[in-house]
Design goal:
Largest sheet: 5 strands, antiparallel
Strand content: over 45%
Shape: elongated
Helix content: under 10%
Structural class: mainly beta
Oligomer: single chain
Amino acid sequence: MRSLKIYCFLFLSWQVCGQQMSINNFRLLEHQTDFFSDGDEGLKCVFNLEVCDTNLKSLEASYSITWQLKTASGVVAYDSRNASKIFYEKESVSLKPDPIKDCSQPKEVEIFIPYKDLILPTVGAQEFRLVLSAEKSGVSIPNFWSTSVQFEYSKKYQKTLIEPIFKVSDLKTKHQLNRSKKVYGIAVTGDMAMLDDSKLNTISESYYKLEWIILDASGYVLFNAKKAKSFFSHTSDDYVFFDHLKKDGKIEIKTFIDYSEFDLSGNQTFVFQLFSENGKEEKAKIHEQNIEVKLPEFKRFEDQEFDISNVDITPSSQHGIQGLSISFDCKLKYIDIRQDKDAGKPYFFYAKIKKDDKVVYEPSGRINFANEHYFLLSATQKDKGKVFKLRQFIPYFLIESSPGQQTWALTIEATDDNGQVKFGELLSKKIDCNKPPMQVATIVVDGIAVVEKNYDVKGPTTHLKHKSDLQWRIKAGKIDLYKSKVIYNSYIWDSQEKGTIRFSKGDELYLNVLDHDNFLNGHDLIGKLLIPYASKGASFEGSCSDKQDIKSLHYSFEVQQK
């Protein structure tokens, strides 16, 4: 038997997402041990990774490398993400920029495939394709490199099977929705009991551990449930406890496999095998049965297509401010998304406005659920065929265009939550609008006093006296036009601060006083007052007392036409 085989590739590279990922000096070492493998032997692959990118800043992020072994027909025989130990899931590689060229410095990477995670139908020479994928900052770079690998699979690595002591009956499969994960998959149910109940009291082990796998017709493992939970109704882990057998006489088999676990689609015939282990190396095959399943066709997140209809763009007013109300219906062509990390991932739609080919509006700030300038669409498999109704409001004061009658070109585009996947212009429409005059104002706040009470609950990170952390903001609707500094642990704002704001003539403006807290707790509103600039004129002073928990407040406001 060959004990060592080395394959060297001087230079191979792939162009992905504007990056050139290069693998060189690849070596395959058989019968190696890994630090995390408890002495178990396996295949070790060693290579140098280099990434070239015109944006050197992108090289500062780490890459997570995952790997698969695939048969000649493309069936996955090993996937590092489904390995028996978390250490095999991915290899984190930190690449440093090369000071001379737009590339990283080459970094040596080692990956490991333990023989014990390979359940192969035959021993001897094996040939597969090793496929590498990567991820950077949440962006997937699938299948960026592959090569043919060969190795000897020895009989000593195959598990010794002991005589079964259990029997399985009434094993059934059906298409089912997993409500907690909101995904569809294969539900497997059945009953398990001992072959000979008279031996129950003679068994020294208190429990047996269960393992189940799914193979294709040729015998290659498609799914290994070593990390699966909730296999039995009696326990959260995949164990058979004999106390349960004594009490009930049988144990209910109940498990679930997400369709996205399989790189296949259409009608399939699988082999379901169930094994038991009693804490020793040996294991017994309890049951084997062919199961017929129909797998949906999965797509990549970035392959999504959108059907947009019933578009309506009209001038309107929301929360006292003027702007454009945009609404449309959207239907997704694909619901079944292949990558686990992208399944259920939301799509973020946003509007852009141009005047004479110049962009006069596009959303700013971080793309997330709280940014109201993005239409959010989050779909799961249960939403197949659903029409999503999306709504958004754009204030006029955010549109950098002159007042008066306007003709604008509005487009709707979509991206992911990192702004990396771009779906292009999904809709383009010309709109005529009469934009109101814009105004610029300055506001000076020079005195605030609030009710003296506990604003924070007692805790290890809160102030001992529970005083407020004072901040004031100028708001138009839900949008902050200005945010002051924060004075911590005080009931008095005893400084002076000046802010400049821009808004549409006629918009309602509010001065809000807050107890500033962290992001998780949110900010508590102490009190607010309407700024009456429409009736007071261009320049005035304002004050209030006994407004919610505001004892007193003084400010000056000066507005001018822009």
